[in-house]
Each structure stands twice: as structure tokens, then as C-alpha cells.
Amino acid sequence: MTRFARIAYTESVRATQRENGSALAAQRQLAEGDRPDPLGPNEAGFIASRDGFYMASVGDTGWPYIQYRGGPRGFLHILDAHTLAFADVRGNRQYISAGNLRQNDRVALFFMDYARQTRLKLLGHATESRPEENPELTERLTEPRTDGRVERLFTIRVEGLNWNCPQHITPRFSEEELQEALQPVRERMAALEAENKELRARLGAPGTP
């Protein structure tokens, strides 16, 4: 998390940390080198399992803009330890994120697992390319396929990352996660129903004591 801290802990942030008694812990995070934080196995596995993420960009006026990007699990690809990429499909045609990135390529990504109260934050630089400019990458980024017309490819060079604590993350479950969580309960209920059916059959059979 060294690079993330060096980017996020600006002078005003460090002043606020000192005021609130967290400067020592923050200082330890700043003490090491300043190379980009790599995506390790935990980060790669977590990102690959997500079916969406939040991406923040900054416009010409300095205002931040946050957009949700969704698709099938694995639509955001890990190209290597420092690079992510995804195929951008046509949405509401406002093109705010795409326009912002032409002026300022900095982005912040939030990956959420509400069911397990886990959050991964990532800072990076995003670049845009057209599908016809790189057919090989386009083919890779469109498997699995996100519904809609692919208009551009976004590649994100990771600078820093940070795992957050689960505090204050409200647990929420998607339909798929509920199905997975309830499957053992369904199997147990089916076994009990079969057992009850067998017992009723025995009790109702002639000569049953």
C-alpha cells in the first residue's frame, strides 16, 4: 500500500491525520519505496470475481464524477500485475467519464463485496483505444461478453491499491449470492422431507408397530 499512501496522503491529509491521532500509522505506510503497488493473487482473484465496480474521474472544472460499470463476472481483465482493462459499451451516451479522461487520465476504482463486507480501492491512469485499433485485445476483453455495443477499450495502469476494513459496510446480497448461500438449506430441507415421507410410509404400512 506504499504507493497508494504516497498519492492519497497529501499534506492537508497528513495535517488532518496529525489532528486526529493517526499520523504515526500513516507515517509507517510512507516510509518504504515509491514503486507502483502490484496486483497480487488476492487482488487479482477479488477483481476477477466482481460483476461491477465504481470508477471516479475528474472533469475540466475540478468536479469528480463517479460511474458504475457492470457486466458478467470477469469482464474487467487483469492483463498483468500492473494493468487492468475492459471493453466499454454504449450506455446513456453522456460520455462524461470518457470526456474527463481525455483531459485527466487519473481514475479511482472501488471494488465492493457487500456480502462479505470487503472493499478494495485502486488508483491508476486510464487510456482509451478503439476496438479496430487492437483486434487481439478486443477479442480478449469481450470474453465474457458485456451486453451492448463496444465503443472503446479502457486500459488502466495501476499506481496504488488499498484494502479497507469491513467497518460500516452494510451487508447486501445479489440474487446469485442468495442462491449460493441458501443451497445447503434447500438440500437439508429436501433430505428432511424425504426422511419424513419415508417415516409416514412406514407408519401407514400394514403391520407397522
UniProtKB/TrEMBL annotation:
The keyword Transcription regulation does not apply. Residues 18-42 are annotated as: Disordered. Keywords: Coiled coil. The keyword Nucleus does not apply. Residues 45-134 form the Pyridoxamine 5'-phosphate oxidase N-terminal domain. It holds the Pfam family PNPOx_N. Residues 175-202 form a coiled coil. It comes from the Bacteria. This is Pyridoxamine 5'-phosphate oxidase. It comes from Streptomyces inusitatus. The lineage of its organism: Bacteria, Bacillati, Actinomycetota, Actinomycetes, Kitasatosporales.
